Structures are given as structure tokens and as C-alpha cells.
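Dear colleague,

Thank you for sharing your sequence with our group. We've completed the structure prediction you requested, and as agreed, I am returning the results in plain text so they can be pasted directly into your records. Please verify that the sequence below matches your submission; if there's any discrepancy, let me know and we will rerun it promptly.
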Amino acid sequence: MFKQLFMGMQSAAIVHAQALEHCTTNDRIRLLFNDLLKSEVEIIDNVIKYGKVKGWLEESPRYSPIK
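Please find the predicted C-alpha cells below.
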């Protein structure tokens, strides 16, 4: 359940970033999407921290060069 919510939040942030990119002519809408995106990134950051504490996020594989 956590992973589905987390992926949905990431997808919504991508959509809002694309909307921000396309709103170059209307300043009010661009500022609205900018504020929305900033608040979403802060929330996603907090969710990442919570997921790490609970152990719900998988660690990415570490890079080790072949010797």
C-alpha cells in the first residue's frame, strides 16, 4: 500500500512539473503550479524519510566495478 501511494505521488509530481513547463504565458497559473510542485516535493521527501525508518523502501543496488 505504501509503495502504491508513493508511486502515485511521484507520478503526480511529474505531471505538475510538465504543467509548469507548459505554462509559460500565464504568470498566475505558473506560480500556482510552482507552489504546488514545491509543496509536493517536500511531502515526498517526508514520505521517503518515513519509508526508510519503517524499512518499506528497498535500497538501490550499490555499484562495484569489476576488478
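Summary note from our side: The CA atoms of residues 39 and 45 lie 10 Å apart.

Kind regards,
the structure core
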